[in-house]
Amino acid sequence: MTDSTATKATLQVNNPNSITIALCWCLAWGDKKQPQFPLSVLQQMRQALHEGKEVPEITKSLVEQVKQLQSIPEGYFPKTLDELNNDYPELWKQQTRIGLVYGGATKIKQYVFEAAKLPDIRGASALLDRINLVDLPAFFGCEQHPDYPQCQQAKNYCKKVRENWLDKPENFPQLSQALIPELIIYSTGGNILAFCPAAFVDDLANAIEKRYTEETLTANSCAVGGKFKPLEIQFGLLPDELNNETFWLEKYLKNLDNQLIHAYFAQPDTNSEEAFKERKTFNELAGKLAAKFNQRRNGNKLQESDRSLRCYPPMFETHPYLKRDEGDRRSAIIQAKSSPDDPSEGLPDDPWFSEASARKRYVGQIAKRDNSSKKWYEKAGFAWEPGEDAVESWVDKFEQYLHDTPHKYYGKIRSENLHPSRVKEALSVREIGDASAPNGFIAYIYADGNNMGGYIQKEIKNPEDYQRFSRDISDATEKSVYAALTKHLQPHKLNSKLQAERKSTKEVWIHPFEILTIGGDDVMLIVPADKALAIAKTIGEEFERQLLNKGKRYKSDKNYNPQLVHRYHGKKIITDEKQCKLSMSTGVLITAEDTPIYYAEKLTSQLLKSAKKYAKDLRKQNYYGGTVDFLVMKAVTMISSNIGEFRSQGLIKSGQGQQKLKLYAVPYTLHELGGLLETAQVLKDAEFPRSQLYQIRNLLERGKQTAILNYRYFRLRLTNKNAQNLLKTQFEDAWCKPKQQNNNGNLAPWMSLKEDKQGSQEKVTYETIWRDLVDLYPFIKKSHNTSNPSQLQQQTSST
């Protein structure tokens, strides 16, 4: 859901010759819109490269140049451009440029979350996915390529995209002939990066933008392109001619103090010469396109481009006295109203739609395989077709994962002697909330990758690296989500009231989650509240495990000290295992099911930013793992501004001459989050009196010593000695030990956080997990295997 060029990639071509074919195709096509060789010759060359056979004689020299380019030794880097010219004269003199285009949707959240209802949000997300995963690859004829399964499933639709849209005279009639599947580097997560013959750079960029606009009407999109010499694929941006003013390594080393040069090339923990080498790769071309992308997205005119500006986005005037759609944004043109003769002609509550919102709702119904009430759209008379065979549900993909992977997900429904096909999608957040304990609460999970930009800058050198990296990230992200849902959830039987709303006479079983999007390294989910943190933790752990299993390229050679990084010490950490260089940070909002989705999304984004900031801070201590920030919001009016202000103003106590106290401990590392859930489970299993939980939380605000005395007083009054021991081992010893090894004191319920230097004095900040435990307590189930026959009692009455 972000606009980064690099983190939204997915490998679409597994053939090891795909980049070779792409570069040969562009050079063989030439600089004009008409190919310099017959199209049949280009296709023969492509087929020969696929099969490892002899290419046509007329294209041999170009193919040899590409193979020479790709066979440049990995450690080779010229000290001067004269050296590069002398070593590879044919490549240097090659005047034919290779086109490179980057584009996709922008302001995605604005488009997806402008509606208040889940069906519209689901449809908006599915429509953007269809454009990015099917429509744009259809430009390249990907339905004929085995590495594009979603296009293969929608072959007829892909042909229609080209024949009925792309090839129309008023659109881009020559473009489809110039495009082949191997040209795509990646296409997912709302973005596409692809090669193309140089003459079609502007046409392809315009086609990408126009497709998004015509299909969504209101979604923002942007696409830019550039033309580059073959050697620039390997060595980054190069000058057209060599002279005394040419900037290269020698001139760079003489101008290290220049602020602009330092900002462009410098990298932490890297010497100057290595930083220059790491910058001069294919990644520099992608970076140039990213800069142009931002300029055009902001409405600015690009140099050396005659393309029309996009500073005037689509606008739909709404007269104040006209009926508006459900989002109160545009003029409504239809009402999905049921007729007395046929109730299936409409939708519940008889909503009003503009054409843009009608498309969202209709695609949302297709994505959820809801065939009950589509007559309203057919009756409206719209000419737009959604491409039903090209819209794939996330639940379809999840069920395919279940089919391919051993699991116990369907165990409960099989015990009822029912077939898994009985399980349907959740149609509303109320149905997801029904699966939570207590009922009526859901959680929004928003996860995003960490250190992606740093990894790309250091490790990604060429288009092949981009393809492999993007495939790995997309695959790891998707599988980590499915693994977490499989591990912590199971089909849920709806209560009778919700069953009646579906007008079903049979029991209704649902998948109790909603996948809003999985794109690149982005994840947005809605899940039952009581499973949210466990799911978030598993997603983060699985993401790292999946990447580590893909090879040494993702293993970090840096070790960290768990005693300094993690605040939870109840479980020993195996320190000889290698860290993953990449991880995920996650924001989790636990809230009531009736919380407005747009408001919940904003808060979850804030939690994600907080978690990512914490992960960035921990990288200074060589910790590269995931982090999670969460908030339990019992009422919409709980936070009036933003989460940061709410915490700093309401949950931090300090004053002149007083110790600084933080009444919360979020964000957490994944290890700490596991410890927090274990500690909450201990309190639940020990049946710690809820009144005391809340009383201790209230006493935190009275100061450090007061809270310590009251906590110890309450713990010692517990008649259940086992509960006392559990609290000591699972809470006090695990969380609240002083940092000094020789200090046998007891800080519970506090932890010493850090030392703030104030002049010549050092001031310790204290924090506590107790408030977080209290917030989570209602969502923790008592363990089934816990034997605790006696209820905990107090020796004396509460004070």
Number of strands: 19
Report, as a whole number of angstroms, the end-to-end distance.
Answer: 51 Å
Mean pLDDT: 86
CATH A-level architecture of the largest domain? 2-Layer Sandwich
Tally of separate helices: 32
Structure, explained:
The chain is α+β, with helices and mostly antiparallel strands and 799 residues long. Helix content is 43%, strand content 13%. It has a six-stranded mixed beta sheet with strand order 11-12-8-13-14-17. It has a four-stranded antiparallel beta sheet with strand order 2-3-1-4, sandwiched between helices. Strands 15-16-19-18 form a four-stranded mixed beta sheet. Helix 7 (118-139) crosses helix 9 (155-166) and helix 7 (118-139) crosses helix 16 (355-367). The longest helix is centred in the middle third of the chain and has 26 residues, at 463-488.
Key traits:
19 strands; 43% helix; 13% strand; disordered C terminus; Type III-B CRISPR-associated protein Cas10/Cmr2; Alpha-Beta Plaits; nucleotide binding; antiviral defense; nucleotide-binding; single chain; alpha+beta
What is this structure's SSE topology?
Layout lengths: L17 H12 L9 H13 L8 H11 L10 H7 L1 H5 L4 E9 L1 H5 L5 H22 L9 H5 L1 H12 L17 E5 L2 E7 L3 H16 L3 E9 L1 H6 L13 H6 L4 H7 L6 H8 L2 H16 L36 E2 L16 E2 L1 H13 L7 H6 L13 H11 L6 H5 L7 E3 L3 H6 L6 E10 L1 H8 L3 H26 L3 E2 L2 H6 L7 E3 L2 E6 L2 E7 L3 H17 L13 H4 L17 E10 L4 H22 L8 E7 L9 H8 L1 E2 L6 E3 L5 E2 H16 L4 H10 L4 H13 L4 H15 L15 E8 L2 E7 L2 H7 L23
Parallel strand pairs: 7-10, 13-14, 16-19
Antiparallel strand pairs: 1-3, 1-4, 2-3, 5-6, 8-12, 8-13, 9-10, 11-12, 14-17, 15-16, 18-19
